[in-house]
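Escalated from tier 1: zinc ion holo job.
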Amino acid sequence: MDMPITIPVTMKYESNAQIQEATDGGVLGYTDVREQNHRVRVIVHVPYGQSYDRTIHLLTHELTHCWECEHHMHLSRTLMEGLAEYTSWVRLRADGDRAELRVIETNPALTYLRGFQQIRRMVTQNGLCATLAELTATGRRTSYR
Ligand SMILES: [Zn+2]
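Tier 2 regenerated the structure:
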């Protein structure tokens, strides 16, 4: 069994223009995972100047990708983005009924929306722990690359 590994994470606040330029556009933030000299390096890029709720959304989303990386998860892009959106949704919901919840629930980017809906359905049916265990096991069996 692969044990989770501890990966140092660096966080970079950048302008939205820098993030769009680095990713060819269309994303709000991103996580850069690189291997250098046999060491994994993770940098989370989040735009500054966003609302508190949007910042919480993006940080939770990107840190979930770090967690997925630490647990060697190689899920489909839909499930990876869906889990990141789901954890953000749970975090935001802890603060009450926030407008940012609707951003997740109605995201026009279908990979994110369908992934969120799929993870939410799995958690409703099986609970969070069983869902994470299933995703971790699935991620180790399959590769989307
Ligand atoms: Zn993502």
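The mean pLDDT is 88.
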